[in-house]
Design brief:
The complex is a heterodimer of chains A (458) and B (321). Chain A has helices spanning 2-5, 7-15, 18-21, 29-32, 61-78, 96-118, 144-160, 184-194, 198-219, 231-243, 250-253, 274-284, 299-313, 317-325, 346-351, 392-399, 402-407, 413-422, 425-445, 453-457, and strands spanning 87-91, 128-135, 167-172, 224-226, 257-258, 265-266. Chain A is mainly α. Chain A has two domains: 2-23 and 31-351, HUPs (Rossmann fold), CATH 3.40.50; 378-447, no CATH class. Chain B is an alpha/beta fold. The longest helix of chain B is centred in the middle third of the chain and has 19 residues, at 152-170. Classes of the chains: A mainly alpha (458), B alpha/beta (321).
Chain lengths: 458, 321
C-alpha cells in the first residue's frame, strides 16, 4: 500500500505518464467539420478541440493555453507553493506532464525576472529553478542507447529554457545508496529482485525515486520539489490506493502540497487533465520523450486503463474521482509551513498568501511507514513494548504499513533479513528513528519517576 | 503400504493437505488468506468468523425478530443456513424469518422462489413473500410493458429495497439482514468514488446498511473487480478496508435524511424515489425520475432538489476552479 501511499504517488506521476497521458490527441481537423465554432472567450478565433474535459471544443488555442496556465498559477499562488526566495527543483521525466510543469515554472520565472528588472527597489528576488532527471536504467530493462538519447533530449530542453539559466541534474536511481559503502547498484538490483509482486515492484521503484529526488534537492539546497502529476494520474492513484487498502493514507498523497518530506513536494498541475497537457505539448511543439516499457500487468496498469475507459465515457469522470477523494480529511503536513524566519524579507513573507486553505481541519499523524512514508493508521502502529523480536529486520517489517508488508516485503524471515541488509541507509534510518521516537515519547511520559544521575549521587 | 502409495500419489498430483487440520485433503484455496483448506475446516473457519463479527459488532440482541432477505441465490442461502445454525449453536435467541420479494417477472423468480421455499422447509424458518403487485399495484412485467427494456433496472432496484423494508414491517421484525458479500461492498465503495457520492462513501461499509445502485453502472465496475481479483485476490478486502478508513471531512455538506411526505419511507428528498417512480407510472409518464432531468412531476420536488444542488455545488466546489 504505502508505497503508493506517499511521495510515491507523486513520484509515479512524475515518471510513468505513459498510461494516462497516451490518450490520443484528435487533430484540429475534427473541428473543421464544425466551422461556425468560435472561441467562447475571445469570440475571435476558431475553437480547437481534442483537449478533453467539459470545455473541449470551446476555446481557441490561445485562450486554451491561457486557461491552462491560469489553473497552474492559481494552484501555485493559492497554496503558497513558490515564494520569491525559494529555489525549486522540477522533476522532469521527459514525459508530457512534467514537460508542461517545467514549461510553466519557466514562464513564471521569466515573468518574475522581468518584474525584478523593472522594479525600482528590487525587494522581491526571483526564485531559482533547477531540473532533475532520474535515470532508472539500473532497474528498468531499457537499452542504454535509448536512455542516452532520452538524456540528450532532456539536456536540449533544459538548455533551451533560458534565461534565467537552469541547472540540470542527471542522477542515476542508485544515488539513494551514495552515502552507503559498497556497490549501491548491485544492492539496488538485489532489493528490487526480492520483490515478487509486480505492483509491489512498481511501488518500490516509486519510493526509491522519491528518495532520490529528496536527496538531490537537499544536497543542492532546493526547498521545493515540483512534480507534474495531473488530475488523471491522481484519479488513478485514488483508485489504486483504494484497491491496495490505503484508504487511511490516501488523502496525504492527493493534495497540492505534501510537506511530510524534508523538502516539501508540490503538485501545481493537480487540476489539469492529461489530455489538456498533451494538447499543449502538441500546440506548442514541446519536445517530450517516452521510454519504452513492457506491457503492464500490475494493479496500477489495470486501474489506469479502467480510469481512462471511464473518462472516455464521461469527460469529467477523473475530476469527479479526485474531487470526491478531496472530501477526505487531509493531514497536517499537506500545507506549506508558514515562514516564521525573521530574516526573510517582509515583502516575501507578505507574498505568501493562501486564500484557499481550510486550515482548521486536518489529521495529525506522528507515525509513518519507513518504506513508503505513508502515515500509519492507529491499528498499524506497533506497540514497541510488545515487540518480542530482537532482530532489526523483523522490527522493520512490523513498522511498515500493511500494504508494504503484503506487496513489497518478503514474507519469510530469512529473505526479509537479506532484504533489510540491502535497503538504502536512509530507509533503515527512518525505521530506527521511528522506534527511537517512540522510546523517547515513552521516556517523556515516565520522566517524573526516573531518578536522574545527580539525584543518585546525593 | 497401499495407503502410503496413495498418499504419495496424491501429493504428486498436487493435491495438498489442509493447512489447518493437516489431515484431510484440501479442497479450496481460500481467496481471503490463500490458505489451502479442507471442506470441514473451511466451513468451520467461515462460520466462526461470522460468529465473531456478530459478537464484535453486537449485531443482535436476544429475543429479537430478524428477517433474512432471501433471493434464492447463493449469498442469501448461505446466510440463511449460517444464521440459523449459529442461532441454534450459540443461543442467540433470535426469531428468524425468511423474507422474499416477488417482482412479478415471469420465468425469473419462479425458480428462485422455489429455492427459498426449500430453504424454508429445510431450516424450518417461517417464510413471507411480498410481491410488487401487492405493494405497488404493478408487477415488473407490467412496468416493462410500459417503459420498455431500457432503464427498468431503476424501478426494480428502488422497489426491491423498499419492498424488503415493507415486508420487514409486515413481519414486525427488529432487524433485516442481507447477503451482501465482500465483492458487493467493494464494488459499492468504488462506484461511490467514481460518481462522487460522498454521503454513501462514508456509510457504505457499515455492516447492516443495505445498498442499492443502478445495475448497468454496477456491471462496469464488476468487471474491473473481477480483473483485480485475478491479479490479487486480497484486493477486494483491501478496498473494504480503505472504505472503512476513509475519514470524510466534516465541512462537507451531507444530504440530510428525512422522510418521504407521501409514504413515510426514509428519503433525502421530499418524495422518496419509489413514490416519484410510482407517480410517474400511474400518471402515464413512466420516464419520470429516471436519469438527470427531473421533470414536472412533484414540481416542488424538482425545484427543491435543484436548489439544494446548487448550494452544494458552491460549498464543495472549492477545488473546482
Amino acid at each position: 500500500m504505502a508505497c503508493n501511499g506517499s511521495g510515491c504517488q507523486s513520484g509515479s506521476c512524475y515518471k510513468d505518464e505513459d498510461a494516462t497521458c497516451n490518450q490520443p490527441i484528435k487533430s484540429e481537423e475534427t473541428d473543421s467539420t464544425n466551422p461556425t465554432n468560435v472561441c467562447i472567450k475571445c469570440k475571435l478565433n476558431d475553437a480547437v478541440s481534442g483537449y478533453g474535459g467539459i470545455d473541449d471544443g470551446r476555446f481557441c488555442a490561445d485562450c486554451f493555453k491561457v486557461n491552462l496556465f491560469g489553473k497552474f498559477r492559481f494552484a501555485v499562488t493559492s497554496n503558497a507553493m513558490i515564494t520569491p526566495t525559494d529555489k525549486v527543483l522540477v522533476a522532469f521525466s521527459g514525459g508530457s506532464s512534467s514537460r508542461v510543469a517545467l514549461q510553466f515554472v519557466h514562464d513564471m520565472q521569466e515573468r518574475a525576472q522581468r518584474n525584478f528588472d523593472a522594479s525600482r527597489d528590487r525587494s522581491l528576488p526571483v526564485f531559482g529553478v533547477g531540473v532533475v532527471f532520474i535515470d532508472e536504467g539500473a532497474v528498468l530493462s531499457i537499452p542504454s542507447s535509448e536512455m542516452e538519447e532520452a538524456v540528450e533530449v532532456v539536456r536540449e530542453v533544459v538548455s533551451s529554457l533560458v534565461p534565467p539559466r537552469k541547472e540540470l541534474h542527471v542522477v542515476p536511481i542508485e544515488t539513494v545508496y551514495s552515502s552507503d559503502s559498497g556497490d549501491g547498484k548491485e544492492r539496488l538490483i538485489k532489493v528490487m529482485d526480492t520483490v515478487s509482486d509486480t505492483t509491489g515492484r512498481e511501488d518500490m521503484l516509486i519510493c526509491l525515486r522519491m528518495l532520490a529526488l529528496q536527496k538531490v534537492a537537499s544536497e543542492c539546497g532546493y526547498n521545493r520539489i515540483v512534480l507534474g502529476s495531473c488530475i488523471s494520474r491522481i484519479a488513478c492513484h485514488v483508485i489504486s490506493a483504494t484497491v491496495k487498502g490505503q484508504g487511511y493514507s490516501l488523502p496525504a498523497d492527493i493534495q497540492y502540497v505534501d510537506a511530510r518530506w524534508e523538502v516539501p513536494v508540490v503538485l501545481p498541475l493537480r487540476d489539469c487533465f492529461a489530455q489538456e497537457i498533451n494538447m499543449l505539448c502538441h500546440l506548442d511543439g514541446l519536445k517530450t520523450v517516452k521510454l519504452s516499457t513492457g506491457p503492464c500487468s500490475s494493479i496500477n496498469g489495470l486501474v489506469s486503463s479502467f480510469v481512462s475507459l471511464l473518462q472516455e465515457e464521461n469527460p469529467s469522470r477523473e475530476s469527479t474521482i479526485v474531487r470526491t477523494a478531496g472530501k477526505l480529511t487531509p493531514f497536517q503536513f499537506n500545507r506549506i509551513p508558514e515562514i516564521i524566519d525573521g530574516n526573510v524579507p517582509l515583502a516575501t513573507r507578505r507574498r505568501q498568501k493562501r486564500y484557499n486553505l481550510k486550515s482548521n481541519e486536518s489529521v495529525s499523524s506522528e507515525s509513518f511507514c519507513p518504506l513508503c512514508n505513508s502515515p500509519l493508521n492507529k491499528s498499524e502502529i506497533v506497540d514497541w513494548s510488545n515487540m518480542d523480536s530482537h532482530r532489526s529486520s523483523d522490527n522493520f517489517y512490523n513498522t511498515c504499513c500493511s500494504s508494504c508488508q503484503f506487496q513489497i516485503l518478503p514474507s519469510d524471515s530469512t529473505s526479509m533479513e537479506q532484504f533489510y541488509m540491502d535497503l538504502p541507509k536512509s530507509i533503515v534510518g527512518r525505521a530506527k528513528q521511528a522506534s527511537n521516537g517512540n522510546l523517547s515519547l515513552l521516556r517523556e511520559q515516565i520522566q517524573d519517576f526516573l531518578l536522574s544521575d545527580g539525584e543518585d549521587e546525593k | 503400504m497401499e495407503g502410503e502409495g496413495e498418499g504419495e500419489r496424491e501429493r504428486k498430483r498436487g493435491g495438498r493437505v489442509c493447512c489447518v487440520c493437516n489431515e484431510a485433503r484440501a479442497s479450496v484455496k481460500r481467496p481471503k488468506t490463500l490458505q489451502h483448506m479442507c471442506r470441514n475446516c473451511f466451513f468451520h473457519a467461515f462460520e466462526s468468523e461470522i460468529h465473531q463479527l456478530i459478537l464484535n459488532n453486537s449485531l443482535f440482541s436476544p429475543g429479537e425478530r430478524v428477517a433474512i432477505g432471501a433471493s434464492g441465490g447463493k449469498d442469501s442461502t448461505v446466510l440463511a443456513y449460517v444464521l440459523s445454525k449459529l442461532n441454534r449453536l450459540h443461543n442467540y435467541g433470535l426469531h428468524l424469518f425468511l423474507l422474499s420479494v416477488d417482482e412479478g417477472i415471469t420465468g425469473y423468480r419462479d425458480d428462485s422462489l422455489q429455492t427459498v421455499h426449500r430453504n424454508h422447509l429445510q431450516y424450518q424458518l417461517p417464510l413471507q413473500v411480498v410481491s410488487y403487485k401487492d405493494l405497488y399495484g404493478w408487477t415488473m412485467d407490467q412496468i416493462v410493458d410500459v417503459i420498455g427494456f431500457k432503464n427498468n433496472c431503476t424501478f426494480c432496484g428502488v422497489f426491491r429495497r423498499q419492498a424488503l423494508d415493507r415486508g420487514a414491517a409486515l413481519l414486525k421484525v427488529d432487524k433485516l439482514v442481507t447477503g451482501h458479500n465482500a465483492d458487493d461492498i467493494a464494488e459499492t465503495v468504488l462506484l461511490n468514488l467514481l460518481r462522487g457520492d460522498v454521503a454513501r462513501l462514508s456509510r457504505c461499509t457499515s455492516i447492516t446498511t443495505g445498498i442499492y445502485s443502478p445495475n448497468a453502472y454496477r456491471g462496469f465496475a464488476r468487471e474491473f473487480i473481477k480483473d483485480l481479483e485475478r491479479i490479487r485476490p486480497r484486493a477486494i478486502l483491501d478496498i473494504i478496508k480503505s472504505g472503512e478508513n476513509f475519514r470524510i471531512s466534516t465541512t462537507t455538506k451531507m444530504p440530510e435524511q428525512g422522510t418521504c411526505q407521501r409514504c413515510g419511507y426514509i428519503s433525502s428528498q421530499k418524495w422518496c424515489k419509489a413514490c416519484v417512480l410510482l407517480d410517474g407510472l400511474n400518471r402515464g409518464l413512466p420516464k419520470l425520475g429516471i436519469g438527470r432531468s427531473r421533470g414536472s412531476v412533484g414540481s416542488e420536488n424538482g425545484n427543491g432538489s435543484k436548489v439544494e444542488k446548487s448550494i452544494q455545488g458552491k460549498q464543495c466546489g472549492t477545488l473546482d476552479f
